[in-house]
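Hi everyone,

Forwarding the result from last night's run.
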Amino acid sequence: MINKILLIFLSVIIVLNSSKLVSGDFLVLSMYGEITKKSNSEKNWVKIKTGSELNYSDEIKLSDKSYICLYHNSGNSLEFKKNGIYKLSSYSDNLKKKSRPVIDIIGQYIFKQIFEADNNIIKDPKTGAMSISIGGVERGLDNFGTEANESRGKKIRIKPPSHFFTLDEAVEFCWFPIKKGLNYEITITDSANDKIFSKITQDTNLTIDLKNLKLDKNICYFWQVSSDNYKSESYCLYLFPDDEKEKIFDEVRAIESQFGEEQSPIKDMALGIYYSSKKIDNRAIKHFENAIKSAQGSFEYRKIYSIYLAKAGYTEEATKILNSKY
């Protein structure tokens, strides 16, 4: 009896989630600025918000410095950034002609993170400042050092990303400084702790051409930074095997084909989420930062990126991005 009730309950949830995605022609995924809509039966323009549903016959009006991303029931997306009035019917017809995405990052991942991620965000009722609560160990920027302050506890703190599961032949490793004028040694070792690479620098970053190291693939090497008595933790450096690498590239091409050749915020968000699911954090971070830079007022995109950083242990950096004012 309990199992039957649970099954009915889960079925209701699935139906509700599905109806939320497809009950209208469009769903507002993210927006900022002054944006209104009007249907054939309405005389006045009505304000909309993230989560609003729009229909085939609706028009939307954008003011200056506005942005909106719409999710269409075909599984495709649509973005507007220029002020003006747009008839959704013409765009809907064009989107219906497109095939449903092979990898539906928006429907499967972005939608969920935008509308369900608030459980991780706590808002101060007095100041309005937001913080992120993620289970596990939290490593804030205070623990990572700053450009001016010495690292704490004789630890050299690594800037994100720390672990590298990489597709790239060249990788940039970055860390926070201890104090001016010190030398840093960056080393790469194998599982037997035999040194594969070592270099000394006064910089707090170093780009290494991995193909010159002739590292084996599908194996975790370890990289670390040290300076006198200071030392970072060891982090994984992993090169994907060729067959897995090619599969990832095929999936990335499939995602990119949904959005066209031009850069766009939703395209960068989709790629950021995809790469993060594969633990390819250097590429994920690049696309997340591109997205919030090109759609600076999007709280939804900042929220997704912030939660990603917090789960990686960079809670204070995540909170800073979440509370950014543009």
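Residues 2-22 form the longest helix (21 residues).

Cheers,
N.
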